[in-house]
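Subject: Sanity check before I submit

Could someone independently write out the structure tokens for this chain? I want to compare against mine line by line before I put it in a report. The sequence has 239 residues.
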Amino acid sequence: MNNTYYNQQTTVSTQGAFAAQVYGWMTLGIVITAVIAFIIDLVTSRSSELLYLITILSLPAIIIQLVLVLVLSFLWQKLNGFVALALFLIYSAFTGVTVGIIALNYSLNSIFLAFGISAIMFLILAAYGLITKRDLSRWRAVALFALVGIILVSIVNVVLLLLNSPLSNTLNALANYVIVIVFSVLIAADSAQLKNLAHQAELSGQGHTRYAVSGALMLYLDFINLFLSVLRITGSRRD
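---
Independent answer below. Compare away.
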């Protein structure tokens, strides 16, 4: 019985240390994104030429983001822990470029408000995911299925926008509320999944870093998408 209790305590301790590493890398990624976005806001406010240049460079930045996130999502188990971490931090920097360009449309007060709301929601949902004993994998599957639907709706919305349809704004507003719900579910479900990731890391015997980076990427993407949707809902346009 003492051995069982000891093993349970060791597991809890290992999962706690792993979760701390995941949230640490995720927080670092968000800080890097925020710093890059702030720099973009600073330099573009002083020069319209730089604003034009950064806008042009946004497409290559998006392409690089896509490549990096695909590599990290599908090849992370084959990557060295240091390489995976470096790619994640580089991805966070490029995300800062796209987030910075989006944020240029909103007032600073709106950005801080959206960030505060998103952070509070994230903390509550992540805490629930970590402490709950319920299986959230089904909810995660439903959220991912809904996410595919949102992508398809977004494509339709682009077509409506090109046709100058009045339905475009309505569809976009509804999509933002759905996105908030979807990523709220994913934050809780992905946080709960950290227990499984920690167990896989222990079984691998190859260190926790790449597994922690995988978890950090999941939660980082959840937070960024939640933040952008909250910003679109609550944000006021910059004068």
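---
OP: Matches mine. For the report I'm noting this point. The chain is about 85% helix and 0% strand.
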